[in-house]
Design brief:
- Strands 1, 2, 3, 4, 5, 6, 7 and 8 form an eight-stranded mixed beta sheet that branches.
- Helices cover 41% and strands 23% of the residues.
- The two termini are 22 Å apart.
- The chain has a single domain, classed as Vaccinia Virus protein VP39 (Rossmann fold), CATH 3.40.50.
- The chain is globular.
- It has ten helices and eight strands.
- By secondary structure, it is α/β, with parallel strands linked by helices.
Amino acid sequence: MLNADRYVHGFSQRETERLYDQAGSVRDLFHHDTRYPVGSTVLEAGCGVGAQTVTLARNSPAARIVAMDRAPQSLRLARALVQEQGLANVQFQQADIFALPFPAETFDHVFVCHVLEHLADPDSGLRMLRRVLKRGGTMTVIEGDHGSCYFHPESRHARQAWNCLIEAQAQLGGNSLIGRQLFPLLSRAGLRDVRVSPKMVYADTSKPELMVAFVKKTIIPMVEGVRARALDMQLIDEASWNKGIEDLYYVAECGEGSFCYTFFKGVAVR
């Protein structure tokens, strides 16, 4: 789906675990209304390690899911996860979003999650996906927006480390602020009846499980994943980086912390 050098988070084992933790922590938030009719064919573009695939397949057992990604190592992990879960309605395809191996109007539905933020040209990517969507079919796109993040207690170093994530992705040609842009992106792609809804995650010590699953196991590791790039790009010095990460963990562990982040879910019709 994208050049590996442009995937700001990398392909480490920890990143794989982070993706699974993230999917679990926001499953109901993302997918409470993601259901596909009996007999429909769904393209999941950019399935990665299968973190969303298993929920799509489980929520719509009578639909056929075609999970596609460019990276063979990610597809291997996704296939193993689907087999482990005993799901029989998924098939996998190695392919690039900009060179889709499907005829026009192949799919009843297209699902895209955490993909557009990594593309240098998301407009072209969406137009390619629209081409393989049947007339009257739906497209669902979910993206985060790193500019929506706020937390308490906030320190200068924690905010600096967080901003490294935004800047590193921008320098790699991505856009971690893309969530707020879903409406114009889907509209420019030639889709109609575009509806975008915010999906806010808020955690404090009254929700200790969410604080651990989303903040400690998902968000902070996401920031930690750009350490090498941030230092190489000279976005921050090592001492400031280490203090920023320490302060982010303090938010999750101090007993008085709170954290808020917003995803955006767009649904549109061809």
